[in-house]
From TrEMBL:
Keywords: Calcium, Hydrolase, Metal-binding. Pfam families: Sulfatase, Sulfatase_C. Residues 1-102, 120-174 form the Sulfatase N-terminal domain. It comes from the Eukaryota. This is Arylsulfatase A. Its cofactor is Ca(2+). Belongs to the sulfatase family. PANTHER family: ARYLSULFATASE A, ARYLSULFATASE FAMILY MEMBER. Coiled coil: none annotated. One of its GO terms (molecular function) is metal ion binding.
Length: 317
């Protein structure tokens, strides 16, 4: 089953991975702002419950293959094997951040990193790419495959990485973590080709999605999306706040070329609904301590030659 409207909660790696694994916005777990580095002191807090930790009590074997990018920490305290996973084969950060053996080197993310041109992927008709609040940075490819259970086809229902944990929990018969979850159960979409009803997805307070409308409160670009001729994409573009927000009908205009007028009755009605849901969302948000703001310590960087000196410059595989 192919999703046409599947979203990440953030256009960069560490925060989006935190929300995928926990079913919670990254601001709750403290994986903000930006990303973690090889020597980051912080990481995904151990009191957060991951998908692996939800499934382990039922006897599931769990493993991570590829990029982790949610911290290493002292004595590897934040690595996957400390977060409910039985095995980990990969690297703990982006392949361009430090030593990386070819055997375990994987692409940095599933978002198109346009700065790498043909090696970084392609956003197709979507605007910009990784690191930006445009559709090329927020919309994700997603396919659900379960022969005999999920019928092949296409769904235009909106879903996000937040929904993976609660969906897997229901399908497995597992208990949900006793914390505030932001994702919703997608089982009806997967097995009944049903609908989830009205739904909002937020991205760090910059973008709101409601049905097929996108409300851009602030737009920003990124060096990840340089090399494209679109002047809104590279990091040289100016951060822009929008009041009233820019509104796009993504069903008719997925490329974000044409903003909708905000003064029409139907748009005003939808805008009011978004404001109401956003206010409820913000009132429920308790920000976790920023793990990124804890800074870095070169001594924490993984080294493939532990006895070498000086670190980290000698840690080249």
């Amino acid at each position: 089953l192919r999703f046409t409207d599947f979203y990440s909660t953030c256009p960069v790696c560490s925060p989006s991975r935190a929300s995928l694994l926990t079913g919670r916005y990254q601001t709750r777990s403290g994986i903000y702002p930006g990303v973690l580095y090889p020597g980051s002191i912080g990481g995904l807090p151990l009191n957060e419950t991951t998908i692996a930790e939800v499934l382990k009590p039922l006897g599931y074997a769990t493993a991570v293959t590829g990029k982790w990018h949610l911290g290493v920490g002292h004595n590897g305290m934040f690595l996957p094997t400390k977060q409910g996973f039985d095995h980990f084969l990969g690297i703990p950060y982006s392949h361009d951040m430090g030593p990386c053996k070819n055997l375990t080197c994987f692409p940095p993310d599933i978002k198109p990193e346009l700065m790498r041109m043909s090696r970084g992927g392609n956003a197709g008709p979507l605007k910009c790419g990784k690191g930006t609040t445009y559709e090329g940075g927020m919309r994700e490819p997603a396919i659900a495959y379960w022969p005999g259970i999920i019928k092949p086809g296409i769904t235009h229902e909106m879903a996000s990485t937040l929904d993976i944990l609660p969906t897997l929990a229901r399908l497995a018969g597992a208990e949900l973590p006793q914390v505030m979850l932001d994702g919703v159960d997608m089982t009806d979409i997967l097995v009944k080709q049903g609908k989830v009803g009205l739904m909002c997805v937020f991205s760090l307070y910059y973008v709101s999605y409601f049905e097929y409308f996108k409300f851009t409160l602030s737009s920003f670009s990124a060096f990840h999306s340089s090399t494209t001729p679109d002047k809104d994409c590279p990091e040289t573009a100016v951060f822009k706040a929008h009041d009233p927000p820019l509104i796009f009908d993504l069903e008719a205009d997925p490329c974000e070329h044409y903003t909708l007028p905000v003064d029409t009755p139907d748009i005003q009605s939808v805008l009011q609904q978004v404001k109401t849901v956003k206010k409820q969302f913000e009132s429920s948000m308790v920000f976790g301590e920023s793990q990124v703001a804890k800074g870095t310590d070169p001594n924490l960087e993984p080294c493939c030659n532990p006895e070498c000196s000086p670190k980290p410059s000698c840690c080249q595989c």
